[in-house]
Every structure is written in C-alpha cells, then in structure tokens.
Amino acid sequence: MMTLSTFLPVIRRGTLTKFDYDDCDKNTKHYGQEVPPAYDISAFPRDLPLLLGYGGGDGLSDGGDGLRLLDGLRFHDQQNLTVLYRLDYGHDDFIMAVNAKQLVYDRVTAFLKLH
C-alpha cells in the first residue's frame, strides 16, 4: 500500500520528510543526498491557507506531532491557519467516524470555499 509505505519512514524518523525511495541511489538522484530531506514548514509562504487536522487518539501520531507542526508554523499568518484538533479522534476517524461529516467534512468544505 503506497500510502502506508510512504508514511512509515515518517513514523520511524519522527520528522516530516519528502518521499523516501528506500534506495540510497534513487534518493541521491532526486534529492542530492542518500536520505530524503525534511520539509521546512517554517519556509511555507506565511499567507498560504493551511488546514492542520490531528487527533489525540491517533496510534500513528501523537498529539505532540501536531504541536511540533504548529510550532513550526508559529509565524504563519493566523488568519490563514485553521487547526482542527479532536481529542477523541484517531488516524482513521477523520475519514470514517460516524460524526466526521459534522466535525471534519463540514469544516474542510468551509475552509475550501473560503480559500
């Protein structure tokens, strides 16, 4: 499964990196180094509309991961940063929870319409 294979290195390293080709030669070809570089989220344009969703019950990512991302975005224009935190949500709940429409989909739709 491509999504999981893409996400596992992020879990192992604890950093948000570009795609890992799982091959030093391929990584070097694409990135000029053997391991994929980390994203510098503080370099994102400050006026770029962003929606960050994370949950406190996520087995793949703990709440600290979301807080680290938010820390990297501390200088982002706050009017362009929407945070969707659900204490009781795990990774899949953002898609499959019975109340996801009201708590997630409606907010994401409003965000997209606004931006």
Description:
InterPro entries: AB_hydrolase_fold. The chain is mostly helical and 115 residues long. Helices cover 43% and strands 10% of the residues. The protein is built from five helices and two strands, in the order ααβαβαα. A two-stranded parallel sheet has the order 1-2. Strand 1, helix 3 and strand 2 form a beta-alpha-beta unit. The protein starts with a helix and ends with a helix.
Can you give keywords for this protein?
115 residues, mainly alpha, 2 domains, two-stranded parallel sheet, 2 strands, 43% helix, globular
Calculate Rg over CA atoms: 16 Å
Proportion of helical residues = 40-55%
Overall 3D shape: globular
* Uncertain stretches: none
Strand order, main sheet: write it out: 1-2
Whole-number total of structural domains? 2
Main β sheet profile:
2 strands, parallel
The fraction of residues in strands falls at: 5-15%
- Overall average pLDDT: 86
Regarding quaternary structure, what we see is single chain
- Could you state the order of secondary-structure elements as H and E? HHEHEHH
Distance between the termini: 31 Å
* Class per helix and strand makeup: mainly alpha
